[in-house]
Design goal:
It is a single chain. The chain is of the alpha+beta class. The chain has a single domain (2-68), classed as Conserved Hypothetical Protein Mth637, Chain: A. It has one helix and five strands. Strands 2-3-1-5-4 form a five-stranded mixed beta sheet, with helices on one face. The N and C termini lie close together (9 Å).
């Protein structure tokens, strides 16, 4: 499991330190768009199918716990 901190800006930010990830996304946090972008970025980075990643907690927060199977 990873602790993910989300930054909302246009700069490309993706930092991994142990089990903590900080990344930036451009999508607005409305209607699940920000969470969808977050999952896509994690899927691409870890080279796993999108269905193997889920947000365990923090669906409406900038701090999330994400599980990658």
């Amino acid at each position: 499991m990873y602790h993910v901190s989300v930054k909302f800006n246009s700069d490309e930010l993706f930092i991994i330190h142990g089990n903590e990830i900080t990344l930036s996304i451009k999508s607005a946090p409305k209607h699940g768009k920000a969470n969808a972008e977050l999952l896509k970025k994690l899927s691409r980075h870890f080279k796993v199918d999108l269905s193997r990643i889920r947000i365990v907690s923090g669906m409406t927060s900038r701090k999330k716990i994400v599980e990658i199977l």
